[in-house]
Amino acid sequence: MKTLAGTKLAPVVEAVRARAEERRRALPLVELERRVAELVRERGHRERAEAALEPPASTPPTTSILARASEEVSRVTETPRADGTPRERFLARFAPGEFGLICELKRRSPSAGPLLREDDARPHARYLALGEAYAKGGAAAFSVLTERDHFDGGLEDLARVAHLGVPRLRKDFVLDAGMVLESALHGADALLLIAAILDDAELRDLRQLARELGLAVLLEVHDEAELERALPHAPELLGVNARDLRTLVTDLGTVERLLPRIPRGPSAPLRVAESGLRTAEDLLRVRAAGADAALVGESLVRSSNALSTLLTWKAALDGARPERRRP
What we know:
43% of the residues are buried. The chain has an eight-stranded parallel barrel with strand order 1-4-5-6-7-8-9-10, surrounded by six helices. The chain has two domains: 10-68, no CATH class; 86-319, CATH 3.20.20.70. Mean pLDDT is 86; it is low at 46-51, 56-61 and 65-79. By secondary structure, it is an alpha/beta fold. 41% of the residues lie in helices and 13% in strands. It contains 14 helices and ten strands.
């Protein structure tokens, strides 16, 4: 675990850890592993899933999952299929040469306060309406905030929007193997890992576990040192966050500085710009810096008509399509 004492991020991470421990008391790791193994079996990989349920006595449960989870679930194909693993379904939404929008579903944030106020008579109605607007507007994926204390989210939100048929990224402060396992169990197609809160060993193990469970990873960085740490883990998506999570200060110049440092090529990660994106001009700016996609949230949530805003952005992006295509 990275040292976060004295930063804006510290109380958020401590709250996440406390909630995760609470969930592990309600659903112990051994039972969580068993349920995930059942999920793997449902995908047609019975033998590998059963092996994961019978680790050697000397092997810790999380190591068992890392070492023995289904190779079939985690297989990598050159062309992701919309009907394949969660990872493949997620990546299939990002066509080469197209700028993808990952649209965020969140009710509040530490930096902005309340964003989405629900009617007590119709709980979750506005949240669902926002998801429907994103789906109609052509969102490549949803970013579903599941952190409870600072974002008013929950794991149940992943299932709440499943019927819309849009791949779901679990956005949270993932700290351990249990949080990766529960992401798979609750239907996430991808999850966020944040370099600022994980040390190198944690990044390696959690990225590997996600791969084995067939989940895509968006690995987020904010500076050059984090980028250098992130690249060896070969995430499917590599995000540059314009917001410094330690101070909550946002600067799109960070995105413009770091995105060009991410290698290109057939096996290179998708480059994702995150935070501080409020207008079509902002999206054009980060695309010009090399972004293949953007994660957008507060401006859409605050918009009086999220569908119209999203369509306006997409029209601006289509009208200013660059000649260069992502290889």
